[in-house]
Amino acid sequence: MLFELLTFPISGPLGGIVWLGEQLLERATSELDDIQNVQKQLLALQLAFDMGDISEEDFEIQEEELLLKIQAMEEEAEQEEQEEEMEPEEFISEDGLSSFSITVLD
């Protein structure tokens, strides 16, 4: 405890910098994997092809990669949605006791 107090002027700001870095990394990762950003990349690829900046072969390869990435993201989002539906719901009664309810899907 005493050691933490003595080193706080140094460890406090460093801890804040580490936290900030983690937040920036998390945000950057989520933005890179966002379906909308992949769709924007697909649109930019189409524009580059239309303007003649890339060959048809390169376009087809990159287009297939982006479409597969979008499909995988949509499937992952659907699976997460189904898992959330299967989780038990917790209810807290008036007497303060909690109970669980399981939703059964047909």
Written account of the structure:
By secondary structure, the chain is mainly alpha-helical. It contains 3 helices and 2 strands; from the N terminus they run H-H-H-E-E. It has a two-stranded antiparallel ribbon. Helix 2 runs antiparallel to helix 3 (56-86). The longest helix has 31 residues, at 2-32. The protein starts with a helix and ends in a 5-residue tail after the last strand.
SSE topology sketch:
Blueprint: H1 2-32, H2 35-50, H3 56-86, E1 89-92, E2 98-101
Helix pairs in contact: 2-3
Put the structure in a nutshell.
With 106 residues, the chain is mainly alpha-helical. The protein has three helices and two strands. A two-stranded antiparallel ribbon has the order 1-2.
The side-by-side strand order for the widest beta sheet comes to: 1-2
Protein structure class: mainly alpha
Report on the biggest sheet. Answer: 2 strands, antiparallel
Shape verdict: flat
Unreliable segments of 5+ consecutive residues: none
SS field, number of helical segments: 3
- What is the residue-mean pLDDT, rounded to a whole number? 80
What would the keywords be for this entry?
single chain, 106 residues, mainly alpha, two-stranded antiparallel ribbon, 74% helix
